[in-house]
Amino acid sequence: MNTYYVYILASNRNGTLYVGVTNDLVRRVDEHRRGKISGFTKRYKVHNLVYFEQTADINSAIAREKLVKRWKRVWKLELIEKDNPQWEDLYQVLL
After folding, report:
1. pLDDT band at residue 37, thresholds of 50, 70 and 90?
2. Burial of 48: CB neighbours in 10 Å, binned 0-12, 13-18, 19+
3. Staple 18 to which of 1, 3, 9, 52, CB 3.0 to 4.6 Å?
4. Residue 1 gets which letter from DSSP?
5. d(CA 33, CA 48)
6. Contact 84, 51 (CB under 8 A)
7. SS (H, E, C) 2-46
8. Which residues of 77-95 are buried (b: 16+ CB within 10 A; e: fewer)?
C-alpha cells in the first residue's frame, strides 16, 4: 500500500507557508531544507515541517493539497495550531 502526504512548511511561527504533496515525506522535506528544489521554498527559506496528514489515495492527496492551498491564511494557521500549537519542526520526529 502506498502512502501520500499533504504537508505544510513554514519559515517560522506565523511566517511564510507552503503547502505540498508527496509520496515520500522525509525525502521531500529534506530536499526543501537543503535547497534542492528551486523556487518558492528556497527563495523564502520555508523549511520547517509544521503539519502533515496522510492518505492511501493519490487523488485524495492531490485534491486535499489543492483545497488547502486555496484556503484563507487564518484557516491554515488554525489547522497547524490544532495539532502543533508550538509550531515544532516535525521533521525531526520523522527521522
Report:
1. confident
2. buried
3. 9
4. -
5. 8
6. yes
7. CCEEEEEEECCCCCCEEEEEECCHHHHHHHHHCCCCCCHHHHCCC
8. bebbeeebeebeebbeeee
Q: Which residues contact 42 (CB under 8 A, 6 or more apart)?
A: 32, 35
d(CA 17, CA 25): 17
Q: What distance separates the 2 farthest-apart alpha carbons in the chain? A: 35
Q: Which amino acid is at 92?
A: Q
CATH number at residue 83: 3.40.1440.10
Residue 39 grid cell? 523556487
| Residue whose cell numbers read 521554498 | 41
Mean pLDDT of 84-91: 96
Number of domains the chain contains? 1
